[in-house]
Amino acid sequence: MRSWRVAGILCLIGTEALLYGYSYPFFSLALEKRDLASWLIGLNASLAGVGILFVGPFLPATIERLGIGRLVALLFAVPFLSFGAILLLPHVAVWFAARFVMGTCFSALWTTTEIWLNGELDDRRRGRIIAASGTLYAICQFLGPLALGATGVTGSWPLIAAMIPLAAGALLSAVLSNRGSSGVETEHDAAPEGISQWRLALSLGGPILLVAFMSGIGETAMQSLLPLYGLAHGLSDAAASRLVATFALGEAVLVVALGWLADRHGRRIVLVGATLIAAVATALLPFVMGEGIALQPVLFMAGGTIAGVYTLGIVLIGQDFRGQRLAIVSTGFGMAYSAGSVIGATPIGYLIDLFGAEALPVSVAAGFLALMAFLAKPSRRPSNEDV
To answer: Would you state the CATH architecture of domain 195-376?
Structure first.
């Protein structure tokens, strides 16, 4: 394992997360200062969340043609130019166009840096480092809004402050790209072209794509609807918000332990176990609401295992696939997670309207229990040699 390259990629992941956490509140607050209607501000945020569904089908071929390092450098450079366009042409239409471009690039960065890191790791330490990258992402994403608090949302300074790490990310990516080929590019496995690539992703990575889809549903639904769940149980606004904070703390901390266990005791068995714990912890929520001592650890476990299921899916992809197949299945994984995130909270919110607040933990727990049963079935392990 080339430690210096792995360290560089981890820096890129941290930079990407910092900018992601910075850009979401920046655009919302800055557009509010321009007296835009709330629905337009919401539309602007939505433009940032669907990018991977547009660019995902083209990522594997682009990685193969450009090289993953050059592509990552480009994905940092384009948002740099987008912030520059806002700085020079501060028209609302430019803000919307730039947000769509940035959202697309950040979504692609999320997938490509995962692919790049996975391709550089040796299998012995894959789980621990992938899990640590997830914790790093969560910490840097948390720091983004704090940085915005220091820069403010008006004037040119917040735009310049965002452009500095983007320029650094583009430069670092270019340097890493010029220091030799990556693990993604050293194996040319003659991946099939066109639609057959996605048949390959589904045939080899079908269970893993289901892991991603369910993780997207569970994580988005819990983070967005937990405050409403707390309010329905008589909590104050502040206490209901703290439910999300405890859930997110589990996401940041527990995934490291799961990565270590996966390296020591087997990735698939730990994935099945984490899925079961996610189902049980979520199902326990109706019984521990109002029990302060029990509620916090249950929420912590739910957040950590739901995030851990996603992380362990990434680890398994790196274990089972190499070269272009790694890029194809990883991109499918990112698209499946995004699809779950986009559609997950809406049907669960509708179930809450029909059946009450307990529909949130019951539906998420049922989804993860079904996923666990599916994963526990014996199946042939996919390999990089499959066609």
So the answer is: Up-down Bundle (1.20)
